Amino acid sequence: MGKRNICNISNANVYIGGVNHIGKADDVKVSGNYKFVTKKPLGMIGPQEFFAGLEKIEAEIKWNSFYSDVYKQVANPQVPVEMQFRSNVEKYTGDELTEQVPLIYYLRAKANNFPEFGQKQQEQHEASTKFTVTYVRIVENGQNLLEIDLESELFVVNGVDVFKQYRKNIGA
Q: How many C-beta atoms surround the C-beta of residue 122 within 10 A?
């Protein structure tokens, strides 16, 4: 049997508006789901689901303290911010590190909440900012894996424009 290929990511960095915020965030999360329509026509032995679009895409950054420079960038819910989450992907063959490549999430998003505050005696301050995302692009080692732009009806997976015919059909 050949050696297994394993990838590992154990750290990341946050950029907002091109500003490096290394060491300020403890946790970042980007989430979104595909929307499906279930069809249950008569005569079929079971239901079938069909892709219908995208649900809301969200992001959340958990900050490890209060940073006024960050809040000045993200606190206005009417102004979208450009963000990057940058990681290093370690690729192993067996137990040997054979390659390291960049993984970058590019986002355009608006804040959903104002700077929160909560403090317990002798504990680290924690706060989080939640975002509604209108653009996401995931790039590994220079290769576009996914690009979604809600404002321009763009949905590209591994270089294939999934909505190209859809936009043509509706005249968009």
A: 5
Two tokens, residue 30: 């980007």
**Which residues on adjacent β-strands are paired with residue 136?**
107, 148
- pLDDT per residue over 79-101, tens digit each? 999 999 999 999 999 889 999 99
Nearest partner of 61 among 128, 109, 107, 136, judged by Cα: 128
Q: What is the pLDDT of residues 23-82, one digit of tens each?
A: 999 999 999 999 999 999 888 889 999 999 899 999 999 998 888 899 899 989 999 999
What does the alpha-carbon distance between residue 164 and residue 169 come to, in Å, rounded to a whole number? 9
pLDDT digit string, tens, across residues 111-124: 998 767 777 788 77
3-state secondary structure string across 95-108: CEEEEEEEEEEEEE
Structural class in CATH, domain 5-35+50-170: mainly beta
CA distance 95 to 67: 40
Beta bridge partners of 133: 57, 109
Number of residues assigned to the chain:
172
Instruction: Measure the CA angle with vertex 138, ends 135 and 141; round to 5°.
Output: 150
DSSP type of residue 3: P
Whole-model pTM: value is 0.88
